[in-house]
Write a structure and sequence with these properties.
Number of strands: 4
Radius of gyration: 69 Å
Distance between the termini: 64 Å
Shape: rod-shaped
Largest sheet: 4 strands, antiparallel
Structural class: alpha+beta
Length: 583
């Protein structure tokens, strides 16, 4: 029968009838849910929020004149400052100073209390579209930020927000000053280190120059010039030596032709003999043995030897023998052994070899004066001695010049090796000097930036909207809670009635009979209530009316004492109405 009842079609009248039957349940459940919502809305403790706005001002001095040493973005610095301000030590001091979270500290740990406090602190960035000087494109930049704190007591919210604002302002000033000081100290230490390094490199370079004074790269051209000049001097000395050697030979030839002990100009037989022997060697080296000059000179030598008894010495014979042998070798390349010249040369060689084997008797010794008295001979002898002395002097000079050349060649040979080491030290010194100049310039800039931060001429935080005592709580939103409670109450009441109605299998009305019996009833007799039932219904209506009126009064009293006085709400409503009408 229940399945048949469910199959019947329901219309609006059926729904109204079901509402009348279940109105008590609907009102009861809706009233309970709504009452719970009202209690929640008015019992939930209010939360007040105090906030302060801090403006981020750019540095007063143009950046093209003085560069600040603090170059991080404002949002980044705010996050860093937040981490420092919201440290465990700072938050504990604030909690103890203003006696915050008194009940929470009794039942929770310190870490839980600090975590709750961090959730109650809010930092919101205020951005604006600005032109980025680095990229030349518009970008979002942080120009200010708000600092807020939420508490159940408005006085605590204001005091803590003001305390946090002071900490943020002081921490920003402290961090900027410390960063500028750290930058300056770092650059000062770096410049000192580089200065010491430059001093060390300069000392090393000076020591290297002292140790390699003669092989320095800058002396390469000078050493080359000195070497070339020395080579030219050696060439000049060699020329002078050759000239002096020629003069010496000339003087010796002249002296041979002079008699040391004769003041006359005519040569003595002995001097004449020496001159002829010298002339014979010269002629024999140029002409053949049968040349008239050679034979004539040879005859004169023989005659003078017999006259003076001064025969040729073994050395003279050997010299003459060497000349004849050379002439024989030359002649044999041209003629045969039967040629008259070849035979003549062989006879002369045999004669000289015989003379060497059988020397003539030694001449009688004659006493000669101690010193030559021939003026011409003495003059020639002095000139010859001077030439010999000058030759010895020039040879000594040439030896010195040769040693000098070897020394300068050694210098030039060692120069590339010295240059490599010299350039390495000079390169390190130049690099250190350039770095020192760069660091010194940055140090001066950092010093100016440090003074700018001390005088608060750089970028700074300015409090433009201090925290004030909040007049109204930011939470909870009681009207929204009441509205949601009403919606939930209606939904719960109607839903419970629908569930109860769907589970009821009672047959009601003619439609129910038709659905159950599949036939129409003969007549429909309406229900007629008696006097008792009518009185009970009236009492129920009166009780419902009293309940509604009492609920309204309770709601008004809760609003008056917990939210705002009713007269204040009345005037606010009138003001809004006036504003709407005025618009």
């Amino acid at each position: 029968m229940a399945e048949l009842a469910l199959e019947q079609t329901l219309d609006l009248g059926d729904y109204l009838a079901a509402f009348k039957r279940r109105r008590g349940m609907i009102i009861l459940i809706a009233g309970v849910v709504f009452a719970l919502g009202l209690v929640t809305a008015f019992v939930w403790p209010p939360t007040y929020q105090a906030s302060a706005t801090i403006l981020i001002e750019e540095q007063e001095i143009p950046t093209n004149l003085i560069q600040s040493t603090v170059t991080s973005y404002a949002a980044q610095r705010i996050q860093v400052i937040s981490q420092r301000v919201m440290s465990r030590t700072n938050l504990l001091e604030i909690v103890e100073k203003y006696n915050l979270y008194e009940s929470e500290r009794k039942r929770n740990t310190i870490e839980d209390v600090l975590a709750e406090m961090r959730e109650d602190i809010g930092v919101d960035m205020i951005t604006a579209e600005v032109m980025d000087p680095r990229t030349g494109r518009p970008a979002a930049a942080t120009i200010a930020f708000t600092l807020a704190f939420e508490s159940e007591k408005p006085q605590q919210a204001q005091k803590v927000a003001s305390e946090l604002t002071t900490l943020y302002l002081n921490e920003n000033l402290k961090s900027r000053t410390e960063k500028a000081a750290e930058t300056y100290d770092f650059l000062t230490a770096e410049s000192t280190r580089l200065k010491e390094e430059i001093s060390r490199l300069e000392a090393e370079l000076a020591e290297f120059k002292e140790r390699n004074l003669k092989t320095l790269p800058e002396l390469r051209d000078l050493n080359t010039q000195v070497l070339e000049r020395t080579e030219r001097e050696i060439s000049d000395v060699d020329t002078q030596i050759r000239n002096l050697e020629e003069r010496k030979i000339y003087l010796e030839g002249q002296i041979v032709m002079l008699d040391p002990y004769s003041s006359g100009e005519v040569l003595s037989p002995s001097a004449r003999l020496d001159a002829l022997r010298t002339e014979y060697i010269r002629l024999a080296s140029r002409y053949s043995p049968d040349h008239p000059d050679v034979t004539r000179t040879k005859r004169e030598i023989k005659a003078l030897e017999r006259e003076t008894g001064q025969y040729a010495s073994a050395d003279d014979l050997r010299a003459e023998l060497d000349v004849l042998r050379k002439q024989l070798n030359v002649a044999q390349q041209t003629y045969t052994d039967e040629h008259p010249d070849i035979k003549s040369l062989k006879r002369q060689i045999a004669t000289l070899e015989n003379d060497l084997q059988n020397p003539p008797p030694a001449p009688k010794q004659t006493t000669a004066p101690a010193n030559p008295d021939n003026p011409a001979y003495v003059t020639m002898q002095s000139q010859l001695a001077a030439a010999n002395s000058e030759i010895r002097s020039l040879k000594a000079k040439r030896a010195q010049l040769t040693e000098k050349i070897q020394e300068y060649e050694s210098r030039l040979f060692q120069t590339p090796k010295s240059e490599q080491e010299y350039r390495a030290i000079a390169r390190d010194l130049d690099h250190a000097s350039r770095r020192y100049q760069d660091i010194k310039a940055k140090q001066m800039t950092a010093e100016v930036g440090q003074e700018m931060e001390k005088e608060r001429k750089g970028e700074k935080f300015t409090l433009i909207d201090p925290a004030i005592l909040p007049e109204e709580p930011v939470s909870p939103n009681r009207p929204a809670i009441i509205f949601l409670s009403l919606v939930l109450a209606l939904g719960a009441g109607v839903g419970s009635a629908a569930v109860a109605e769907s589970m009821d299998s009672t047959v009601r009305g003619a439609k129910g009979i038709v659905a159950a019996l599949h036939m129409a009833p003969l007549a429909v007799i309406p229900y007629m209530a008696n006097t008792a039932e009518t009185g009970a219904q009236q009492r129920k209506r009166i009780m419902l009316l009293v309940t509604v009126v009492a609920g309204i009064i309770i709601v008004l009293l809760l609003v008056h004492f917990l939210v705002s006085p009713l007269d204040v709400l009345w005037f606010r409503g009138l003001r809004k109405v006036d504003n709407i009408v005025g618009e």
